């Protein structure tokens, strides 16, 4: 199973964005979204180091709520 992780853009330099999520920072490629109006403070879905989709803050929050529930679930 593959997961896309919602992250918020902190800074942009060329096609690389410094993104954060849950206190973790990563450099993320914006190459796949180069024709999209991406800006600092936007939220993106990150998969294997690439931003693959711009999302709303509400969508990012909803995804993290689901991920948090998954992490809290007892092992099956």
Structure characterization notes:
The radius of gyration is 13 Å and the shape is elongated. The protein has a single domain (5-72), classed as SH3 type barrels (Roll). The chain has 76 residues and is of the alpha+beta class. The chain has one helix and five strands. It has a five-stranded antiparallel sheet with strand order 3-2-1-4-5, with helices on one face. It has one helix at residues 57-72, and strands at 5-13, 16-21, 24-29, 43-47, 50-55.
- What is the helical fraction, as a range of percent? 10-25%
Tell me the domain tally: 1
What's the shape?
elongated
Strand content: 35-45%
CATH class: Mainly Beta
Number of helices: 1
Alpha carbon gyration radius: 13 Å
**Could you tell me the mean pLDDT?**
93
What is the succession of H and E elements? EEEEEH
Provide the low-confidence segments as ranges. none
Enumerate the strands of the largest sheet in spatial order, edge to edge or round the barrel.
Answer: 3-2-1-4-5
CATH level 3 topology:
SH3 type barrels
- Describe the largest sheet: 5 strands, antiparallel
């Amino acid at each position: 199973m593959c997961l896309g992780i919602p992250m918020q853009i902190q800074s942009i330099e060329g096609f690389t964005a410094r993104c954060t999520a849950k206190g973790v920072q990563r450099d993320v490629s914006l190459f796949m979204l180069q024709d999209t109006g991406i800006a600092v403070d936007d939220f993106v879905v990150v998969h294997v180091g690439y931003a693959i989709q711009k999302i709303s803050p509400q969508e990012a929050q909803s995804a993290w709520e689901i991920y948090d529930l998954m992490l809290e679930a007892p092992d099956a």
